[in-house]
Amino acid sequence: xxxxxxxxxxxxxxLSNGLTVLAKPSKQIPRVESHLWYNxxxxxxxxxxxxxxxxxxxxxxxxxxxLSESDINLACQKLAGxxxxxxxxxxxxxxxxxxxxxxxxxxxxxxxCMQHATFKPQMLASELKAVIEEMRMYREDYQGALIEQVIxxxxxxxxxxxxxxxxxxxxxxxxxxxxLRFYKKHYHPGNAILVVTGDIxxxxxxxxxxxxxxxxxxxxxxxxxxxxxxxxLIGKTTILKRPTTxxxxxxxxxxPGLKAGQNNLLDIASIILASxxxxxxxxxxxxxxxxxxxxxxxxxxxxxxxxxxxxxxPAPDQSPEVIEKALYEEFELLGTKQCxxxxxxxxxxxxxTDFVSLLESSEKQAFVIGNSYLAxxxxxxxxxxxxxxxxxxxxxLSEFFSKYFNDNExxxxxxxxxxxxxxxxxxALQTESDAVEQSILEKHVRTEPVEDGxxxxxxxDAALSNFSYPKPVTINLxxxxxxxYHHNALVPHIxxxxxxxxSHLYEPDTKTGILSFLLRIMTExxxxxxxxxxxxxxxxxxxxxxxxxxxxAIRCLSQDVKKALKIxxxxxxxPSFNEVIIEKVRQQILNDLDELWDSPIDxxxxxxxxVVYQQHPYSKNALGTKQSxxxxxxxxxxxxxxxxxxxxxxxxxxxxxxxxxDIEKMVSSTLKAWTGPLIHDLTxxxxxxxxxxxxxxxxxxxxxxxGFVAPSLSRKDPDYNAxxxxxxxxxxxxxxxxxxxxxxxxxxxxxxxxxxxxxxxxAHEQPxxxxxxxxxxTEKAELAQNLILETIDxxxxxxxxxxxxxxxxxxxxxxxxxxxxxxxxxxQTFLFLKKLHLSFNLFDKQAELLSILTIEQVNKIAQRYxxxxxxxxxxxxxxxxxxxxxxxxxxxxx
Length: 894
What we know:
Blueprint: H1 2-6, E1 11-14, E2 20-25, E3 31-38, H2 52-59, H3 71-78, E4 82-87, E5 92-99, H4 104-116, H5 121-140, H6 142-154, H7 168-171, H8 176-186, E6 192-198, H9 202-213, E7 237-242, E8 248-256, H10 263-274, H11 280-288, E9 292-300, E10 305-314, H12 320-336, H13 341-358, H14 362-376, H15 381-391, H16 394-404, E11 411-417, H17 420-441, E12 473-476, E13 482-487, E14 493-499, H18 514-522, H19 531-540, E15 544-548, E16 551-557, H20 561-573, H21 579-597, H22 600-613, H23 626-631, H24 634-644, E17 651-656, H25 663-670, E18 694-698, E19 703-711, H26 720-731, H27 741-749, E20 755-761, E21 769-777, H28 781-798, H29 802-815, H30 823-835, H31 842-851, H32 855-865, E22 872-877
Parallel strand pairs: 2-6, 7-11, 13-17, 18-22
Antiparallel strand pairs: 1-2, 3-5, 3-6, 4-5, 8-10, 8-11, 9-10, 12-13, 14-16, 14-17, 15-16, 19-21, 19-22, 20-21
């Protein structure tokens, strides 16, 4: 651990005006992450200011004395970068991710925003509406809403009890003057830290920081208020009734905050408690007592006082009282009796595995550095964390549980399905609230168009750095398995992806979801093991084994890859089709399906696929349906394993530090026992033209979810690159460009918090689809539909500009570098290319392929795919006209 800790070296300089600058080089790709952290969050708001820190986060990039409201978005697009921001109870952070040739532009923008923000009323009018929609969206996340309520009960006197987003009544009373007062009080060099990670030289960071920030005067009179947490033997219960089919329980305990520097104890405790299948609570609640379907543990790293939260998905008809009895017994054992040596050492090893993955991501590093330094003023926090992990004792852990996990201090939250009468009352209450909200927002009306850029013309295009795209080695093994591997010595870490020829597209309509079901069974245990002993074996070695889609995934330290491959062979050849485990996994999948169909912003994706693809295999849900999952038998699973879990035409991707291994020899020897039959190719039917229609799905929710869908084209279509460029211009592309036409609609109207989608959604061997979606207040749904359709149609009728096309080409080319930052991203990229039979040289040729595309070609494609008359409209929410309701939630459209 010590050698890894020393590799995390942070360089520090404090400017004369008090700004702290922290730099951490990380040179795997030519990208730089710049974060400006302000030591102000929702806890620093006075009465009448609730929600102001979060609203200011939205507003700070909306124009300054020298920047228009569009300039920052335009700069991100011109430089092939990205900007973001987030607010917590303790801080607000603004971020840029830019090519290493242009990262200093972020400092110029940060410095301008620190001095000259304006918060013009016109921008405030539209952004307030967007924040109100964000508030509605959070309310629709029932688990998140319950967490917020329980946190409020934990801190009755500390300002942590206030929601970060504030209340809509306080928000709508905020104006330009009050925002400026808050801004001038808190946003200055002495109350900020600048963190820069990635492809940088620390000395260069310090020189640039001095250039852009050094002249900003300090605020010497500034003093932050100190808050204290009052503890007591009090436990409160919060019950949230909502129109859901899935009950969910949360149990929260106050623990030391980030300032205390005890994250080593918190992380080890959370892993032992409820992180992974070998954890105490998973083994007790899920496997032994069978009173829960799943359990998890989260740590909230608040500065003054932290929270450890246990989440429980109860088994059908299990009351909170039954769950709590088991919880309290396990907490008592952990507080009075030392944990087992194996689980203690396994937890330590898993923290090391997690740390190694941190070393691959400049974004994660910037967050950890900024968050920990702001709380502790200690640049050695990460190094000391690893040292503390190594030094932590079982006695310390027992004392931790004994001190903080007192039954009388547990704060509980229950998400309970509401009955029909309760749902009617919820709808009535929301209708009243909507009326009040509407009367308030009528005072905030934007009448001016979105400002054009003015500073952007001074910004030069980024010279994209030369990047040598990794090329893996490919060999075919004797058993028919294709091995694709790449040695990356950056970190001592390995990622393996095993993808089968078969996918959920092969499933008969009566057995949809069987492949996902089978892979989950296979990862539960093997012959000769119980599910508990198998989980213990994996997690003791710090090996992660999971299943998703048609793929098994393994993540481990480099030193353990041979063990991991041997276990993989046993998983493939010796699965245990234990009836009890089959029923456990069945209930977990049924719960996942319930959660999917409880979330309209998620299940609209499935509805869209069924509408576009109809009887085509692409219409199938990889999870299946409740009916199909309930019908799948042990014999079905065994038959599918024998028929389809075959090395023939399967692909194993291995990426990581392979310096100690002859990887071809090792894989051949460890997987030689795995054999199986050839798998037939699928014959796809023709996707029939879609007759545009309106489909309404009635659902009592605060927000409507709107979608627009139509067939698109395949990844191998000659016009794919042209449509991919158009996708960036219209929808924002994979990185959600803030200069897209749809995002500009958001900026202008304030109707949406999030709006986006893709013109190439799901494009693979078969055509993808045009799919655009958003959430919106029900009463604004018709207006939103018309505006979105008009925006799309205008692109088809009038085309795109040369400037838009040039920037889209730059963004598409630059985004390919992001695919190679980590071992996991590289493995996923290699697998994608293999599945589509595309060359590993694809990205080397991309710039040339994009350069020859003309605006005439792109506009011709726009005429085909940006046409409102070809789009089917989906709307999920309260239906005004019951005659228009075509579906009920969870029904098939076919």
